[in-house]
Amino acid sequence: MERTGIILDAENISDLVELAKGAEGARLDSVWATELYRTSFQQLSFVSQATKTIKLGTAVALAFVRSPFITALTALDLDEVSNGRLILGLGTGARRTNEMWHGIIHGKPVSRMKECIEVIRLMTNKSHLGEPVSYVGDYYNINTRGYHRPFKPFRSNIPIYLAAVGRYMTQASGEVADGYIGHVVCSLRYIKEVVNKSIKIGLERSGRNRKDFEVSSIITCAVSNNKKQAKQAARATIAFYATVRTYEPPFRMHEFEKEAQKIREAFFKRDIKSMIESVSDNMVETFAIAGDKDECRKKVKEYRGHLDLPILSAPHYFVDFEEVKGYQTAILETFGK
After folding, report:
1. Cβ–Cβ < 8 Å for 230, 297
2. Which of 8, 112, 152, 313 could lock 107 by a disulfide, CB 3.0 to 4.6 Å apart?
3. pLDDT for residue 107
């Protein structure tokens, strides 16, 4: 069966766990926990106890707001309690939110992310060996002399996937990570023309083969016979992400700069209705999959020609949670066993 992942999203933890159990029952490949209103690791810790076989991914854990040391320990713990099912998906977060919400220096994101992943790998591979881990970089200066984790990890080589939109961070995924996670606004054209070419450059720099690397991307997917309602729900999610300048490259590629500017202006006025209305039908067609089961299967199949793993996300921003549940159930029914 073709592999499919799903984004976990729910109003409460109990519903989130039930969704994960449903995804496992439908034999989906993986469930992925986001990090905005909840922490991705905490969500997956509950899910790990309610499931047995489905892979668990963070999509994505914020790399810069935690020390690489604590990220490594958290990953090791979660991998142990899930019996080796964790995929550690990392992202930089946006500069504005890192600096304003978390009070940290964002720095040069590509350089910092490469260092961060290096330190995480050192910690997961060596923290139990009785030797200090030392690292000197522009962002991290670490020496764990006196520290020894007194037990072996379930896996020392936990797969790390790097989330990216821009070409240079995408290249970095090919250089230092085990996989790539594309953002909701990485359209099929953007994946073909920017993402895969950038990953190829990164893999060549690291001397690795494409077969040793997994390309995934999150895709907004609204499966419904009520196509108008499905498209409206997708429109709201696109409006949310159009407000973040970090995600601007795909909007620019498709010449949606004017629409994105209108959405941002409405956002700062807290005019949600105008934000959503500013998302054109063409934007919905470009950045989302919305329609009945056959239409959605056909569109996802197009993505499979350029991705190893589509990670489907029900529309959820500015949408009632009961409606979100309906789209999630439809994803399981459409792409499950």
Report:
1. no
2. 112
3. 96
- Both ends of the chain: CA-CA distance in Å? 7
Give me the helix-helix angle, 109-126 and 167-176, nearest 10°: 20
Global pTM reads 0.97
Which CATH number do you get for residue 281?
3.20.20.30
Structural domains in the chain (count): 1
pLDDT digit string, tens, across residues 253-279? 999 999 999 999 999 999 999 999 999
103-140 core/surface letters (b: 16 or more CB in 10 A; e: else): eeebbebbebbbbbbebbbbbbeebbeeeebeeeeebe
Radius of gyration of the chain (CA): 20
**Which residues form the domain of 139?**
5-335
CA distances from 231 to 9, 20, 188 (A): 19, 25, 17
- pLDDT above 70 for 1: no
